[in-house]
Amino acid sequence: MTELLAADQGQPAHIVHLVDSDSFQDWRKEQPQRIRALLDANRYDGETGYAYLILPGENDDDWSVVSTVANVQELSPWCLAKLGEALPEGTYRLADDRQPGPAMLGWLLAQHRFDDYRSNPSDTAGKRVLLTKDVNEIERTRQTAEAVTLVRDMVDTPAEDMGPAQIEERARQLAEAHGATVSVTRGGELESGYPMVHAVGRAATKERAPRLVELEWGRPDAPRLAIVGKGVVFDSGGLDIKSGKGMRLMKKDMGGAAHAIALAKLVMERRLPVRLHLLVPAVENAVSGDSFRPGDVLDTRKGLKVEIDNTDAEGRLILGDALTKAVEDEAAMIIDFATLTGAARVALGPDLPAMFANDEQLASDLISASQKVSDPIWRLPLWDGYDEMLKSTLADMVNSATSPFAGSITAALFLRRFVPEETPWAHFDTFAWQPAAKPGRPKGGEALGLRAAMAMLEERFARD
């Protein structure tokens, strides 16, 4: 992606004119008659989505582009994505000395393809290079785009090739690139220290043994930032088995781990003044004679006892042990990502990750950051009144409320049992999936909430 953005030093480039419904007619009046005739012939009205048109110049190489955007005055990350996908190979700059700013992200992401499983990879028609005078933003935009594509590629990879061992390997590659350290607790070693991670993952084959992967980076005396990601590499539902249709996308149930790894990557690349602690419990929720059962009571690292109501509510179990470890190591802030509940999708749809937080300032900072970088999130409440839905007659709590109501909230309340009130904590219940293609956002794995979290961290730790 490095070659797709370049410093504008006056080199030859095709001009891109941006218009919206308010500015189109004024721009049209300034064009020569032949261009106005071309616009009319193509019924180009400056109001239709992200439509664009190539405009001929005086000679074969002297052509330009006009493209409709939602708002000329405020470019979004996605307003140039269609051009990044569709324009011919070449170099481009915006007209009138306009700088692309956040739109550089969509330009890059539009040119990424996940072709690992195609016998004939996609024809991307060469490289389309965008020029900018904001040279300081080129590297930052590249870093963000690579973090997003890391999430997409990990989620899109079939479960056969993205098991617990592969997630561990991603963390090790990241550690090697940034001078971090990795420790892994796996298989039977988990039983005493991380009993819920062990219970959920023990039914998988030896080659896909469960593990807790931890990465640490930064000065030991810096504030500890814990990033936790749910790494269920495939979720059959366990003995409460899903339907075939329900399992079809369950390769993406490690989307939380992908988000956590990508966020850790950004933290290290931008050298935030933190002591980073990445924790990824990686398991396969499989079915075998060793599967944990409905009605079982599991130990936890924290010492609580959890009665299993539903083996398909496994993500919160493995996160509970990982959150406990983050707290033991005195995290100053905890952020977790998980593809946790279908209830969050029923409430908010695929585009909006549900965000829960036990700290008002943290919640406010996340919402502000999400708006700043156009990475929408929506806060849902940690409603104390629903805590009673987690009551067990046998143990300290159940893992899944029997009520059909407020499923995403009760899941978040379950996780809250493992985080002290005084430790700022945010939980993202994210879909990690784009169900229908949009410019720069192909159908498949997607990073949702990642950029918002990173923008908040940069603001928070720069301020501190």
TrEMBL record:
Keyword list, A-Z: Aminopeptidase, Hydrolase, Manganese, Protease
State one Pfam family annotation.
Peptidase_M17_N_1
Q: In its UniProt record, which GO terms are filed under biological process? A: proteolysis
InterPro entries the record matches: Leucine_aapep/pepB, Macro_dom-like, Peptidase_M17_C, Peptidase_M17_N_1
Q: Where is the Cytosol aminopeptidase domain?
A: 310-317
Task: State its Enzyme Commission number(s).
Answer: 3.4.11.1
Report the GO terms under cellular component. cytoplasm
Q: What SUPFAM superfamilies does the database record attribute to this sequence?
A: Zn-dependent exopeptidases
Its recorded name reads Leucyl aminopeptidase
